[in-house]
Amino acid sequence: MPHLFIAVTAHGYGHIAQVGPIAHALRRRIPGLRLTLQGTVSRAFVEARMPAGCRYVEQAADVALPMDGPLHARWQDGLEIYTAFDAEHAHHLARQRALLQQDPPDLLLADIPWLPLTAARELGIPAVALCSLSWYDILIDSPVGRLLPAALVDHMRSAYAGADLFIRPAPSMPMAWLPNGRDVGPIAERRRRDPVGLRERLGIDPDQRLVLMQFGGTGRLRLGDEQPLPANLHLLTPDAPEDNAPAALRARVTAIGAGPQVLDALASCDALITKPGYGAFAEAACNGIPVLYVPRGDWPEEPYLVDWLAERVPNHALSIEDFAAGRIARPLRELLDCAPVAPVPATGVDEVVELLVNYLRL
To answer: How many beta carbons lie within 10 A of that of residue 53, not counting itself?
Structure first.
Protein backbone atom coordinates (compact mmCIF):
# COMPACT_ATOMS: atom_id res chain seq x y z
CA MET A 1 0.00 0.00 0.00
CA PRO A 2 1.22 3.56 -0.68
CA HIS A 3 2.82 5.47 2.17
CA LEU A 4 2.39 9.19 2.91
CA PHE A 5 4.87 10.78 5.33
CA ILE A 6 3.70 14.11 6.81
CA ALA A 7 6.21 16.37 8.57
CA VAL A 8 4.70 19.15 10.68
CA THR A 9 6.49 22.16 12.07
CA ALA A 10 7.09 22.42 15.81
CA HIS A 11 5.31 25.79 15.97
CA GLY A 12 1.62 25.68 16.70
CA TYR A 13 -1.26 23.27 16.41
CA GLY A 14 -2.83 24.99 13.43
CA HIS A 15 -0.55 23.10 11.06
CA ILE A 16 -2.11 19.80 12.13
CA ALA A 17 -5.48 21.45 11.45
CA GLN A 18 -4.32 22.06 7.86
CA VAL A 19 -3.00 18.57 7.12
CA GLY A 20 -5.65 16.65 9.08
CA PRO A 21 -8.51 17.15 6.59
CA ILE A 22 -6.15 16.28 3.72
CA ALA A 23 -5.09 13.04 5.41
CA HIS A 24 -8.71 12.03 6.03
CA ALA A 25 -9.69 12.80 2.44
CA LEU A 26 -6.74 10.85 1.03
CA ARG A 27 -7.54 7.88 3.26
CA ARG A 28 -11.12 7.92 1.92
CA ARG A 29 -9.75 8.03 -1.63
CA ILE A 30 -7.11 5.36 -0.96
CA PRO A 31 -8.51 3.17 1.87
CA GLY A 32 -5.25 1.30 2.47
CA LEU A 33 -3.08 4.42 2.58
CA ARG A 34 -0.38 4.20 5.27
CA LEU A 35 0.20 7.42 7.15
CA THR A 36 3.16 8.61 9.19
CA LEU A 37 3.19 11.94 11.01
CA GLN A 38 6.39 13.53 12.31
CA GLY A 39 6.02 16.35 14.82
CA THR A 40 6.09 17.45 18.43
CA VAL A 41 2.45 18.22 19.27
CA SER A 42 0.63 16.19 21.89
CA ARG A 43 -0.29 12.64 20.95
CA ALA A 44 -3.87 13.27 22.07
CA PHE A 45 -4.20 16.13 19.58
CA VAL A 46 -2.74 13.98 16.80
CA GLU A 47 -5.22 11.20 17.55
CA ALA A 48 -8.08 13.70 17.56
CA ARG A 49 -7.19 15.26 14.20
CA MET A 50 -5.55 12.48 12.16
CA PRO A 51 -7.06 9.27 10.74
CA ALA A 52 -7.00 6.12 12.85
CA GLY A 53 -3.85 4.06 12.51
CA CYS A 54 -1.59 7.01 11.70
CA ARG A 55 1.92 6.24 12.98
CA TYR A 56 3.24 9.12 15.05
CA VAL A 57 6.97 9.85 15.19
CA GLU A 58 7.61 12.31 18.02
CA GLN A 59 10.69 13.93 16.55
CA ALA A 60 11.25 17.59 15.75
CA ALA A 61 11.76 18.51 12.10
CA ASP A 62 12.53 22.13 12.96
CA VAL A 63 12.30 24.48 15.94
CA ALA A 64 9.44 26.50 17.37
CA LEU A 65 9.33 30.27 17.42
CA PRO A 66 9.01 31.15 21.14
CA MET A 67 5.91 33.05 22.18
CA ASP A 68 4.79 35.20 25.09
CA GLY A 69 1.24 33.88 25.23
CA PRO A 70 -0.84 33.50 22.08
CA LEU A 71 -0.24 36.96 20.62
CA HIS A 72 3.41 37.95 20.85
CA ALA A 73 6.43 36.26 19.29
CA ARG A 74 9.79 36.65 21.02
CA TRP A 75 11.58 37.55 17.81
CA GLN A 76 15.08 38.07 19.21
CA ASP A 77 14.97 34.76 21.09
CA GLY A 78 13.63 33.14 17.95
CA LEU A 79 16.51 34.49 15.90
CA GLU A 80 18.96 32.85 18.31
CA ILE A 81 17.08 29.54 18.24
CA TYR A 82 16.87 29.40 14.45
CA THR A 83 20.52 30.43 14.11
CA ALA A 84 21.66 27.70 16.51
CA PHE A 85 19.50 25.11 14.74
CA ASP A 86 20.91 26.02 11.33
CA ALA A 87 24.48 25.91 12.66
CA GLU A 88 23.97 22.12 12.87
CA HIS A 89 22.28 21.90 9.50
CA ALA A 90 24.30 18.90 8.30
CA HIS A 91 23.53 16.93 11.48
CA HIS A 92 19.80 17.63 11.35
CA LEU A 93 19.65 16.85 7.64
CA ALA A 94 21.40 13.51 8.14
CA ARG A 95 18.98 12.65 10.95
CA GLN A 96 16.01 13.50 8.73
CA ARG A 97 17.37 11.40 5.86
CA ALA A 98 17.85 8.45 8.23
CA LEU A 99 14.27 8.74 9.44
CA LEU A 100 12.90 8.69 5.90
CA GLN A 101 15.11 5.74 4.96
CA GLN A 102 13.69 3.60 7.76
CA ASP A 103 10.41 3.26 5.87
CA PRO A 104 10.68 5.19 2.60
CA PRO A 105 7.40 6.93 1.71
CA ASP A 106 5.92 7.39 -1.74
CA LEU A 107 5.37 11.07 -0.93
CA LEU A 108 6.54 13.50 1.71
CA LEU A 109 4.15 16.32 2.65
CA ALA A 110 5.64 19.13 4.76
CA ASP A 111 3.64 21.76 6.65
CA ILE A 112 6.18 23.51 6.64
CA PRO A 113 9.54 22.42 8.06
CA TRP A 114 12.14 22.92 5.36
CA LEU A 115 14.64 20.17 6.19
CA PRO A 116 12.34 17.24 5.33
CA LEU A 117 11.84 18.72 1.86
CA THR A 118 15.59 18.82 1.29
CA ALA A 119 16.09 15.32 2.71
CA ALA A 120 13.36 13.89 0.50
CA ARG A 121 14.80 15.57 -2.60
CA GLU A 122 18.25 14.13 -1.88
CA LEU A 123 16.71 10.65 -1.50
CA GLY A 124 14.65 10.90 -4.69
CA ILE A 125 11.34 10.98 -2.79
CA PRO A 126 8.63 13.26 -4.19
CA ALA A 127 8.09 16.16 -1.81
CA VAL A 128 5.30 18.73 -1.53
CA ALA A 129 4.98 21.70 0.82
CA LEU A 130 1.55 22.76 2.02
CA CYS A 131 0.92 25.85 4.11
CA SER A 132 -0.48 29.37 4.22
CA LEU A 133 3.02 30.64 5.07
CA SER A 134 6.67 29.66 4.91
CA TRP A 135 9.14 30.16 7.71
CA TYR A 136 11.32 32.08 5.29
CA ASP A 137 8.51 34.58 4.59
CA ILE A 138 7.61 34.90 8.27
CA LEU A 139 11.16 35.47 9.43
CA ILE A 140 12.28 37.73 6.58
CA ASP A 141 9.26 40.04 7.16
CA SER A 142 9.66 39.98 10.95
CA PRO A 143 11.43 42.56 13.14
CA VAL A 144 14.62 40.43 12.94
CA GLY A 145 14.45 39.86 9.18
CA ARG A 146 17.58 41.86 8.41
CA LEU A 147 19.58 39.85 10.97
CA LEU A 148 18.94 36.37 9.54
CA PRO A 149 22.13 34.43 8.73
CA ALA A 150 22.69 34.04 5.00
CA ALA A 151 23.06 30.26 5.33
CA LEU A 152 19.68 29.92 7.04
CA VAL A 153 18.02 32.03 4.36
CA ASP A 154 19.60 29.91 1.63
CA HIS A 155 18.60 26.62 3.26
CA MET A 156 14.98 27.72 3.66
CA ARG A 157 14.61 29.22 0.19
CA SER A 158 16.24 26.29 -1.60
CA ALA A 159 14.13 23.74 0.32
CA TYR A 160 10.81 25.46 -0.34
CA ALA A 161 11.62 26.32 -3.97
CA GLY A 162 13.00 22.82 -4.60
CA ALA A 163 9.82 20.98 -3.63
CA ASP A 164 7.69 19.48 -6.40
CA LEU A 165 4.92 21.87 -5.34
CA PHE A 166 4.30 24.47 -2.67
CA ILE A 167 0.54 24.47 -2.18
CA ARG A 168 -0.88 27.72 -0.78
CA PRO A 169 -4.38 27.33 0.68
CA ALA A 170 -6.49 30.47 0.92
CA PRO A 171 -5.91 32.69 2.80
CA SER A 172 -2.13 32.60 2.37
CA MET A 173 0.80 34.96 2.35
CA PRO A 174 1.60 35.73 -1.31
CA MET A 175 5.01 33.97 -1.39
CA ALA A 176 5.26 35.20 -4.98
CA TRP A 177 8.96 34.33 -5.16
CA LEU A 178 8.21 30.59 -5.25
CA PRO A 179 8.64 29.03 -8.72
CA ASN A 180 6.48 26.03 -7.69
CA GLY A 181 3.55 27.77 -5.98
CA ARG A 182 0.03 26.48 -6.50
CA ASP A 183 -2.99 28.28 -5.03
CA VAL A 184 -6.05 26.39 -3.81
CA GLY A 185 -9.17 27.22 -1.82
CA PRO A 186 -9.46 27.18 1.98
CA ILE A 187 -8.81 24.05 4.03
CA ALA A 188 -11.17 23.51 6.94
CA GLU A 189 -13.32 20.89 8.60
CA ARG A 190 -17.07 21.35 8.27
CA ARG A 191 -19.26 19.99 11.03
CA ARG A 192 -23.04 19.74 11.14
CA ARG A 193 -24.61 22.80 12.71
CA ASP A 194 -26.69 21.68 15.71
CA PRO A 195 -27.10 24.56 18.20
CA VAL A 196 -30.00 22.88 19.99
CA GLY A 197 -28.07 19.66 20.48
CA LEU A 198 -24.97 21.54 21.66
CA ARG A 199 -26.96 23.35 24.35
CA GLU A 200 -28.61 20.12 25.45
CA ARG A 201 -25.27 18.29 25.72
CA LEU A 202 -23.74 21.10 27.78
CA GLY A 203 -26.81 21.74 29.93
CA ILE A 204 -27.10 25.37 28.83
CA ASP A 205 -30.47 27.14 28.59
CA PRO A 206 -31.79 27.37 25.03
CA ASP A 207 -32.08 31.17 25.20
CA GLN A 208 -28.33 31.61 25.74
CA ARG A 209 -26.13 32.81 22.86
CA LEU A 210 -23.01 30.63 22.72
CA VAL A 211 -19.61 32.14 21.94
CA LEU A 212 -16.51 29.98 21.56
CA MET A 213 -13.33 31.57 22.91
CA GLN A 214 -10.03 29.95 21.96
CA PHE A 215 -6.57 31.28 21.15
CA GLY A 216 -4.73 28.21 19.92
CA GLY A 217 -2.10 26.01 21.50
CA THR A 218 0.30 28.72 22.73
CA GLY A 219 -1.45 29.84 25.89
CA ARG A 220 -4.58 31.81 26.54
CA LEU A 221 -5.63 35.32 27.41
CA ARG A 222 -7.44 36.24 30.58
CA LEU A 223 -10.75 37.96 30.01
CA GLY A 224 -11.33 40.78 32.46
CA ASP A 225 -14.57 41.61 34.26
CA GLU A 226 -14.64 45.40 34.11
CA GLN A 227 -17.92 45.12 32.23
CA PRO A 228 -20.49 42.33 32.73
CA LEU A 229 -21.28 39.95 29.94
CA PRO A 230 -24.70 40.31 28.32
CA ALA A 231 -27.32 38.41 30.30
CA ASN A 232 -28.01 35.94 27.48
CA LEU A 233 -24.36 35.19 26.63
CA HIS A 234 -22.42 32.05 27.58
CA LEU A 235 -18.76 31.42 26.75
CA LEU A 236 -17.30 28.08 25.70
CA THR A 237 -13.55 27.43 26.02
CA PRO A 238 -11.24 24.44 25.59
CA ASP A 239 -9.83 25.07 29.09
CA ALA A 240 -11.53 25.60 32.43
CA PRO A 241 -11.47 29.17 33.80
CA GLU A 242 -8.60 30.00 36.11
CA ASP A 243 -9.28 29.41 39.81
CA ASN A 244 -8.83 33.09 40.59
CA ALA A 245 -11.22 34.22 37.88
CA PRO A 246 -14.20 36.21 39.19
CA ALA A 247 -17.06 33.96 40.32
CA ALA A 248 -19.55 35.80 38.11
CA LEU A 249 -17.39 35.09 35.07
CA ARG A 250 -16.76 31.44 35.97
CA ALA A 251 -20.50 30.89 36.14
CA ARG A 252 -20.82 32.04 32.52
CA VAL A 253 -18.03 29.85 31.12
CA THR A 254 -18.16 26.16 30.20
CA ALA A 255 -15.00 24.16 29.46
CA ILE A 256 -15.52 21.80 26.53
CA GLY A 257 -12.05 20.25 26.28
CA ALA A 258 -9.80 20.07 23.24
CA GLY A 259 -10.09 17.90 20.16
CA PRO A 260 -13.14 17.27 17.95
CA GLN A 261 -15.54 18.87 20.44
CA VAL A 262 -14.00 22.26 19.67
CA LEU A 263 -14.92 21.89 16.00
CA ASP A 264 -18.43 20.74 16.94
CA ALA A 265 -18.81 23.78 19.20
CA LEU A 266 -17.51 26.14 16.53
CA ALA A 267 -19.99 24.89 13.94
CA SER A 268 -22.91 25.31 16.36
CA CYS A 269 -21.99 28.49 18.23
CA ASP A 270 -23.05 32.06 17.46
CA ALA A 271 -19.61 33.71 17.34
CA LEU A 272 -15.90 33.05 17.85
CA ILE A 273 -13.36 35.01 19.92
CA THR A 274 -9.81 34.27 18.80
CA LYS A 275 -6.54 35.63 17.40
CA PRO A 276 -5.69 35.84 13.68
CA GLY A 277 -4.57 32.36 12.68
CA TYR A 278 -5.19 30.17 9.67
CA GLY A 279 -7.14 27.41 11.39
CA ALA A 280 -9.46 29.67 13.39
CA PHE A 281 -10.20 32.05 10.52
CA ALA A 282 -10.66 29.38 7.84
CA GLU A 283 -12.87 27.19 10.02
CA ALA A 284 -14.98 30.16 11.11
CA ALA A 285 -15.49 31.32 7.51
CA CYS A 286 -16.20 27.80 6.25
CA ASN A 287 -18.84 27.38 8.97
CA GLY A 288 -20.28 30.91 8.54
CA ILE A 289 -19.40 32.03 12.10
CA PRO A 290 -18.80 35.73 12.99
CA VAL A 291 -15.38 36.48 14.51
CA LEU A 292 -14.20 38.85 17.23
CA TYR A 293 -10.40 38.82 17.14
CA VAL A 294 -7.55 40.28 19.14
CA PRO A 295 -4.82 41.40 16.70
CA ARG A 296 -1.28 40.08 17.04
CA GLY A 297 0.31 43.24 15.64
CA ASP A 298 3.71 42.20 14.32
CA TRP A 299 2.82 38.78 12.91
CA PRO A 300 3.65 39.01 9.16
CA GLU A 301 0.82 36.71 8.09
CA GLU A 302 -1.88 38.69 9.90
CA PRO A 303 -2.83 41.29 7.22
CA TYR A 304 -3.56 38.59 4.66
CA LEU A 305 -5.74 36.61 7.08
CA VAL A 306 -7.66 39.69 8.23
CA ASP A 307 -8.30 41.01 4.71
CA TRP A 308 -9.59 37.62 3.56
CA LEU A 309 -11.88 37.17 6.56
CA ALA A 310 -13.30 40.69 6.22
CA GLU A 311 -14.77 39.80 2.83
CA ARG A 312 -16.50 36.65 4.06
CA VAL A 313 -18.00 36.83 7.55
CA PRO A 314 -18.91 39.61 10.02
CA ASN A 315 -15.86 40.40 12.11
CA HIS A 316 -14.51 42.96 14.55
CA ALA A 317 -11.03 43.69 15.92
CA LEU A 318 -10.74 44.13 19.68
CA SER A 319 -7.66 45.58 21.34
CA ILE A 320 -5.83 43.53 23.94
CA GLU A 321 -6.54 46.33 26.42
CA ASP A 322 -10.29 46.05 25.87
CA PHE A 323 -10.17 42.26 26.10
CA ALA A 324 -8.13 42.33 29.30
CA ALA A 325 -10.68 44.74 30.79
CA GLY A 326 -13.62 42.62 29.66
CA ARG A 327 -15.03 45.22 27.30
CA ILE A 328 -16.46 42.72 24.82
CA ALA A 329 -20.23 43.19 25.23
CA ARG A 330 -20.79 45.86 22.59
CA PRO A 331 -18.69 44.36 19.75
CA LEU A 332 -20.15 40.92 20.43
CA ARG A 333 -23.68 42.29 20.36
CA GLU A 334 -22.97 43.94 17.01
CA LEU A 335 -21.70 40.66 15.58
CA LEU A 336 -24.57 38.64 16.98
CA ASP A 337 -27.06 41.08 15.47
CA CYS A 338 -25.66 40.55 11.97
CA ALA A 339 -27.64 38.50 9.49
CA PRO A 340 -26.40 34.94 8.96
CA VAL A 341 -23.94 34.43 6.11
CA ALA A 342 -23.42 31.45 3.87
CA PRO A 343 -20.43 29.27 4.79
CA VAL A 344 -17.43 29.59 2.49
CA PRO A 345 -16.91 26.31 0.61
CA ALA A 346 -13.79 24.49 1.86
CA THR A 347 -12.71 23.64 -1.69
CA GLY A 348 -9.03 23.39 -0.80
CA VAL A 349 -9.35 19.87 0.58
CA ASP A 350 -10.50 18.29 -2.69
CA GLU A 351 -8.10 20.45 -4.71
CA VAL A 352 -5.11 19.31 -2.65
CA VAL A 353 -6.19 15.67 -2.86
CA GLU A 354 -6.28 15.90 -6.65
CA LEU A 355 -2.76 17.31 -6.64
CA LEU A 356 -1.41 14.59 -4.35
CA VAL A 357 -3.27 11.44 -5.31
CA ASN A 358 -1.18 10.69 -8.40
CA TYR A 359 1.95 10.48 -6.21
CA LEU A 360 0.23 7.74 -4.18
CA ARG A 361 -1.20 5.47 -6.83
CA LEU A 362 0.00 1.87 -6.82
So the answer is: 9
